[in-house]
Amino acid sequence: MASIELDHVSKMYANGAYGVRDVDLTIADGEFVIFLGPSGCGKSTTLRMIAGLESVTAGELRIGGRPVTHVPPRDRNIAVVFQSYALYPHMTVRQNMAFGLKMRGSPASEIDAKIRDAAGLLGLTSYLDRKPAALSGGQRQRVALGRAIVREPEAFLLDEPLSNLDAQLRAEMRLELVKLHRRLGRTIIHVTHDQVEAMTMGDRIVIMRDGEVMQVGRPLDVYANPANTFVARFLATPPMNLVPATLSADADGALAVVLDGATLPVPGQHAASYRPAAGRPVVFGLRPEDLHEARQNPAWQPVELTVVAMEALGVENILIGQIGGEKPVEIAARLSRHFHAPIGSKVTLYADLAPMHLFDPEGGKVLPRPAIALTAQ
C-alpha cells in the first residue's frame, strides 16, 4: 500500500495547451479517491501521469514517499484497469489473470494460489476456463480487476471501468468495488464522469474542470458546500438551482435575496457572512430537494412557480417550473411521487433557505458562509 502525492503537477502539450495545470494533491495510504469531471477535464490525463503512461511537464510525483516522476511504469508497482477491459480474447480467464505474473517469471504454484484467491474474491471461480467472449460485461470487468489484484500492486488506478456497463450492472459493480476496497485496503483512484459513482464510492472526490482542480473533499461535504457554481451544478442531477438575484438590506439591516418574482429573507445564521455583499448582484443557489410541497417549518418561504414539466421517476417527481416575470428562470424541485400539477398551472412551494448559497456572478466563486454538514461520514 502507498500514499500518492502530486506536487504541483502539470501536463503541457507541444502546442502550448495545458491538459492538466498545477494539481497539488495528496492521497493517503489506503484511501479511495474519485476523480470526477466532464469529458476533457484532465482527470484521465492525471491518472495516466500517476501510472507513468503520460509524461509530467512540471511538478513531482511521489508514491509511498518515493519520487517516481521519471520512473518507468513497470517499476511503479501500480495496476491500471481501463474502460475497455483490455483482455486477450484467445486466452481463458485463468490465462488472462496469470499473464502478467508469467511475464515476471513467478512460480506456477504462486500464480495458481493468487488466481484462486482473486477468483474467489471476485466470484470468478466457476468461470476460470471460459474465454472473454463467453462472459458478460460485468464478468469481464471482474477479470480485468482480478488480473490487477494478482499483481499485488501498491495502488489501483481505475479509468472509467464501469462506463461500458448497463445501469443495473453499474449499480452492482459500484457495490463490488466498495467491498473490494474494504477487503484489500489498497489505495484506489477511480476516474469517472458519473456523479452517482462519485457520491457513493469514494472517501474523497476531486472535481476537475479544464485541467484544474475545482474542489477536493468528502462527497457530502462538497455537495453541501460547493466552492463555485461549476461544482454546484455538476455534482447532482438535477443540479443546484442558480438564479440571478440582488442581495438587499433594509433600514434595520435585515438581508434578503431579491429575485425576479420573489423576495427571500436571508436566514439569521448567514447574515453576518453575507452582509458585506449587500447591494450587490449575486447568484442565488438552492438545491431541488430544499423546495417542498408543504410548509412543514414556519421558517420556510413561499415561492410561486409556473409548471413547465413534471418528470415522474417512481420514487419521486421532479417539477420544472418558471419563476419570475419578464425574464423567467427555470428551476427544479424534488417532490414526493404523490405530487402532481398540470403543465401551465401555478403552484406554491416552500423553500428551506438554511442550505442556500450565494455566488459571485463574475467568477462563480461561492461567497463564504458557515459550512453545513449534511450527515456524519
Structural commentary:
With 377 residues, this protein is α+β, with helices and mostly antiparallel strands. The protein is built from 9 helices and 20 strands. It has a 6-stranded mixed β-sheet, with helices on both faces. It has a 5-stranded antiparallel β-sheet with strand order 13-12-11-14-20. α2 crosses α3, α2 packs parallel to α4 and α3 packs across α4. The radius of gyration is 25 Å and the shape is elongated. The model has no long low-confidence stretch (mean pLDDT 92).
Task: Explain the layout of strands and helices.
Blueprint: E1 4-12, E2 18-27, E3 32-36, H1 43-51, E4 58-63, E5 66-67, E6 78-81, H2 93-104, H3 108-122, H4 137-149, E7 155-159, H5 167-184, E8 187-192, H6 195-201, E9 204-209, E10 212-217, H7 219-224, H8 229-234, E11 241-249, E12 255-259, E13 262-265, H9 268-274, E14 281-286, E15 291-292, E16 301-312, E17 316-323, E18 329-336, E19 346-351, E20 357-359
Parallel strand pairs: 3-8, 3-9, 6-7, 7-8
Antiparallel strand pairs: 1-2, 1-4, 4-5, 9-10, 11-12, 11-14, 12-13, 14-20, 15-19, 16-17, 16-19, 17-18
Helix pairs in contact: 2-3, 2-4, 3-4
Side by side, the strands of the main sheet go 6-7-8-3-9-10
* Amino-to-carboxy terminus distance: 23 Å
Question: What is the H/E order?
Answer: EEEHEEEHHHEHEHEEHHEEEHEEEEEEE
Q: Judging from the principal axes of the Cα atoms, what is the shape? A: elongated
Q: Strand fraction band?
A: 25-35%
